[in-house]
Amino acid sequence: MFRERLLKKYQNLAAINQAWGTAFPSLEAVTPPQRPDTSQAWVDFQEHRVWAQLDFAAFVTQTLHAYDPNHLVVWSLPFWGSPVCAANWWSWPGSTDILMRHGIDFGGGAHRMAIPRDVAESSGKSANALCMPPDYNPDYVQMMFQLAAGRSGLSHVCIGGTPDHTYYQGAANSTLGWKRKEPIYTASRNLNQLVRTLGRTFLLSKQRPPQVGVYQSEKTLDLNGIENRKINGIFLLLEDLNVDYRVFSESGIHRISEFPVVIIGPFARCFSEPEAQGFRNYVEKGGHLIFVRGAAEADGRNVTVGSPGFGLEELVGSKQAADMGGVKLLKGSSGEDFPVMLAVSTREVQPDVEIVAQTTDGKPVVTERNAGKGRVLYVGADLGSIYQSSWTQDFAGIDRTDSQVIDDNAFGSWFRPDTAGRQAVALQGHRTWAQLVSRFLRDAGAYSSVTMQGVTDAIGAVRAKSFRQGNDYWVGFANRVVQKGMDHKSSPPDQYHILISNLRCTVRVDADVKPTAAYILPMNRLSGEQQTAMPEPLALTAGANAVSLTLPRLEGIAAVLLTNEYEPLVGISADHYHVLPGEVVRLKGRIINTTRRPFDATLSADAAAPLAVVEKPFKVSLRPGAAQEVSFSAAVPPDAAPGHLLVQIVAERPGAQPRVSPSLELEVQSAVEIDVLNADRTIMPATDRDHSLRISGICRVRPDDFDLTVEVKTPEEFSATPRQFKLKADASGSIAAEAELKDEGGASRVAEGEVTIQGTVRGLPFQKKLPIRLARGTVAYEEFLAVKSHSSGVEGGKTRLIALENEKIKANFIPGAGVLYDLVLRETNNDVLVKGEYPYGFVLYAWGGWLGGGFAQVRREARRDRARIKDSRRKARYHEGDA
Fold it and tell me: For labelling alongside 601, which of 35, 81, 383, 472 has CA 20 to 30 A away?
């Protein structure tokens, strides 16, 4: 196919040889280059690889659509970062329904959100961001993902999993009935609730007018490759400044006049004269250009032509004097320090150039000059890599301990959060570079769509971004100021974050639509047992091209709706999160009339079975802007099983679609939970250091509301003392008891007994039976465990294993395959083989005999099984990441 396309492009073999500088005797002898270089052959091969990739994707998409026209096709866009990828994301909209890229994050993958988002918005397709599990990032980082990515919301590689997995645990424990991991479960769920509450306003909303364009060259990506940090750092800087930006490429260069400021850098290394002229015209007509070292240094074959080339030295007002390594610090014209890394380009400047920063021995590196009606800021250092090198999502890791320096560095001298004696994690990013870019943007008339008094001066302290859909705007907020030493997986938002109170915000609005009302959108706030997800009205002050409001409190994340008229907002609160069978939960519902007309509505509580709502629906009448609350109660049946139940408030109006509050979850807990320790392993009373049968648990009811008895049945030659006893709970509700197991002596033996716990809890019968295995000496027995024989299974089924065990070790074999599944040191209960559900380990073979070709047959089977095990290991490493 590659040769056919070459022939179509060049018409004949002689033209191919002339273009490539080769002497292939025939078309069949033509071979592509083996590694990146600056030849025309490499250009042609990369163009072919881009075409082949897109052609294959289009074929798959069209085939699926032919058989299922409504089937949505999602492609995870190809890897980005090296020239071997040939990953032209801007051409993908024609080959897929939904653009997606997995592995998103800010530290190294900001481009995986920004570029698919902008490709999607310019093409009319949808974009999605595939994240790590919900518990992997704090709530504010997930909100930042939501603001930076495409408008279809976030996806996760898994929502729940086993607690012992390194990465893919998720926000619910699959081994304990999907028990939620708070507080991160509710924090992550809030983002899904936000999408549900806003509906079309979220999904169809657009970013605000771009203030900065980042020019990323497709040719550079395909021929040279782009180091992620060189462009990611630029995105991180702009995100920290809360500036709306767009990424564009050669195919979108006609849009350059839309941007007050454009940034080019090493991610636009490969250039052409038409591009260079386009940028000259842009600046001549009043555009502002940030020109970062590495831009426009090579031609269309990636041959270096200058620093920069294409006559752009005149535009930036300087030419390179030297490529200087070992420089770690630049001094600004006002005495400020600019940290740098790698090499810098020192400059020979024109007379009209202003020197912004120079080396300590006076060699210019950062310059600025007027050009035509515009202005150019030249940065002779790798700004993206510099900014990313010390960027952290919560600004952790500063080395200085002086509190005033930390505060200044973290928040700016104008902003002080109310830490109330707590130490906030401080900013580590290079503020001087961000301040320089911020000042240049401000001078160019570029603005943030959302500014916050005080906080805006604290670079990156609060991420805020606004969107518009039709006549409505919505604004998302993410508080990145967190308390030192806190963990987002275990610390509630009010403890994890430093609270920002009375946050005064200004949101720019378009001349054709100026909102008159503002509302805090309902998000679930879990404080102890209290759950609240209520909408709140905000006072709004209108200006010429902006509106102002005050957010009363910002813990982790928040969202605000700006509107003239909207569908009614509905909220809910509950006085319990954990409930017991037989209890009653008190609920409140709130409705706000956000329309311009009075209406009548019916409010009801929609509770999942077996919850039973006591009250009948309420009828309410509301004038525009008015709010009303109603109360409900939901009863949990006495025999309700443990689990999670949803409840929400529904508002119905004649002739209108129902409006629904965010849903709250109630966790139904058992009145009594009891566990028998050591019941999951073989107990050898004669040799085990720990040979007691210990019973532990928790009682959540009054002591006189439960009456439970334990009976231990042992096989012959074993005994338990005591064999029968009552369970009691202490003042805190803890239950603890034990029975000593004894070995009466005899030959090697393994046998099963049983522990029975029965009685009544709150007058209802309770029974729990658990088998126990007792043994002496060296024994063999069967057991059935969840084992995956390959990596494609969703859940492992029960597999028959043969166990060999003595007082020192236990070995489990998969019969037939000859696989040693695990090898456990009994004293520590540690498995010395790889942990997991896959059958890796030693492979043992009974070689059979020589007669009848038995050895040859078994040898073939051995080769087959070894290949299967090797493939299983390879897939396991790929999928699990911890092999």
Answer: 472
